[in-house]
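Hi support team,

I've been running sequence recovery on a batch of backbones for a student project. Most finish fine, but this one hangs at about 90% for roughly twenty minutes before it completes. I'm not sure whether the input is malformed or the queue is just slow. I've pasted the structure tokens below so you can try to reproduce it. Let me know if you need the job ID as well.

Thanks,
M.K.
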């Protein structure tokens, strides 16, 4: 099963986050483990979910040396046997990322194991099903 931000936030809420900072740090570590770094674009969603300020999250990230904050968004396109057939979607993603240099890092991933809901993509860790070019435009024009 693919990693899911909402499920992870709910899990760590049950573990005591955000009052228990160790639970919050565990969530941040899990995000980083999944994505290689913590995208700045995720902070508003995490802050809203827990009812805390983004500045508090930034302070926690900066206090823990092993946590890394990325200023760019991370767009992951499933390139598995089913989603990979959406070549127009991949071409649009490459074109949009080229149009916004430094704003987005594009990655192609193996099958996300939700083939029936594809094409699938993740944007800053959030999973989107039945992705199309309009969704890409919407995400990258935020
Ligand atoms: S090919 Fe994309 S989820 Fe399987």
């Amino acid at each position: 099963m693919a990693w899911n931000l909402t499920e992870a936030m709910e899990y760590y809420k049950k573990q005591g986050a955000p009052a228990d900072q160790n639970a919050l740090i565990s969530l941040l570590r899990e995000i980083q483990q999944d994505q290689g770094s913590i995208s700045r674009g995720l902070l508003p969603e995490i802050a809203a979910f827990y009812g805390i300020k983004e500045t508090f999250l930034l302070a926690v990230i900066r206090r823990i040396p092993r946590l890394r904050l990325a200023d760019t968004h991370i767009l992951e396109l499933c390139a598995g046997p089913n989603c990979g057939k959406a070549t127009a979607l991949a071409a649009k993603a490459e074109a949009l990322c080229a149009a916004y240099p430094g704003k987005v890092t594009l990655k192609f991933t193996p099958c996300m194991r939700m083939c029936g809901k594809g094409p699938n993509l993740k944007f800053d860790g959030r999973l989107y099903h039945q992705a199309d070019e309009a969704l890409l435009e919407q995400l990258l024009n935020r």
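--
Follow-up from support: It reproduced on our side and the slowdown came from queue contention, not your input. The chain has six helices and six strands. No action needed from you.
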